[in-house]
Amino acid sequence: MNTLHYIFDPFCGWCYAAAPLLRAAQGVAGLDLALHGGGMLAGARRRAITPQWRDYVMPHDQRIAALTGQPFGAAYFDGLLRDTAAVMDSAPPTTAILAAEAVAGRGLDMLHALQHAHYVAGRRIAEPAVLEAIAAGLGLPAQAFAAAFGRLAGAATEAHIDESLAWLSRSGGQGFPTFAFEDARGHLTRLDTGAFLGQPEAFAAALRERLPAAAGGPAAAQCGLTGCVPPGD
After folding, report:
1. What is the span of the domain harbouring residue 177?
2. Residue 8 included in any domain
3. How far apart are CA 98 and CA 77, in angstroms?
4. Is residue 218 assigned to a domain?
5. pLDDT of residue 227
6. I want to staple 96 with a disulfide (CB 3.0 to 4.6 A). Which of 37, 81, 131, 196 is the partner?
7. How many CA atoms lie within 13 A of 179 on its CB side?
8. Residue 10 contacts residue 93 (beta carbons within 8 Å)
């Protein structure tokens, strides 16, 4: 199977800019999606919102809105970004993504819901009660989600973050977001997605070009009088 690896963080503004690309990739037949939460603000890197943070991120957010059309709410700009009691910790929302995937295969839906909750609704997505409410909004069974969240918090989430950072290094990525295409033979290619921001249809078309030419099947070997060469060699 061909796989698009996505290395991201729920608090990464440019990952929010790339969200339409991720949705477009969902519609590409024959392509698996693998989510890798990189823990940008996890552990010792967790931080409270400050006036300095607001001043730092707002120009980026405004550029993202202009470039991609992604919405940012007043509850985010004038609410959350002024809430100095709010703590940004990537671990809990990453655990929520893992739990949603474990319960119902809906990790990607959880990521989109978390980004909307943060950037539009201005909610504290590192808080368990908020994560439970978001899961309920997705229709996930409350008890199953809570059990999965408890099981996957802590060491399991830390292991996932470590593995995600290994994928980042393996793909040659420098930060978040990073997309990498893995073909059916395990060859990994980092994609330059910056050129596609704001152009999700073009991104989907570029992904389709990387898939085998035969509909749903492997590319044919190239054969001559002396034998056959595997596709891509």
Report:
1. 2-210
2. yes
3. 28
4. no
5. 36
6. 131
7. 23
8. yes
* Dist. CA 76–CA 122, nearest whole Å: 4
H or E stretch covering 70: none
DSSP-H helix ranges across 127-194: 128-137, 142-152, 155-171
- Alpha-carbon gap, residue 28 to 21, rounded angstroms: 11
The two structure tokens encoding residue 143? 């008890």
Query: Which has the closest alpha carbon to 212: 191, 170, 181?
Result: 181
Domain membership of residue 29 (yes or no) is yes
Strand order in the sheet with 178-182: 31-37, 2-8, 178-182, 188-191
User: What CA–CA distances, in Å, run from 63 to 16, 72, 145, 197?
Assistant: 12, 11, 35, 11
For residue 228, the model assigns a pLDDT of: 39
With b for 16 or more beta-carbon neighbours within 10 A and e for fewer, the 45-81 pattern comes to ebeebeeeebeebeeebeebeeebebebbebbbeebb
CA distances from 52 to 35, 63, 73, 75, 119 (A): 30, 18, 19, 18, 18
Q: What is the pLDDT of residues 108-134, one digit of tens each?
A: 999 999 999 999 999 999 999 999 999
Here the CATH number for the domain that contains residue 62 is: 3.40.30.10
| Tally of domains in the chain | 1
pLDDT < 50 stretches in the chain: 214-233
- What value, to the nearest 5°, has the Cα angle with vertex 65 and ends 60 and 71? 120
Q: Which residues pair with 189 in a beta bridge?
A: 181
Assigned domain for 128 exists: yes
Phi, psi torsion values for 221, nearest 5 degrees: -70, 150
Answer for the pair 101, 63: CB distance below 8 angstroms, yes or no: no
At 156, list the tokens: 């399991």
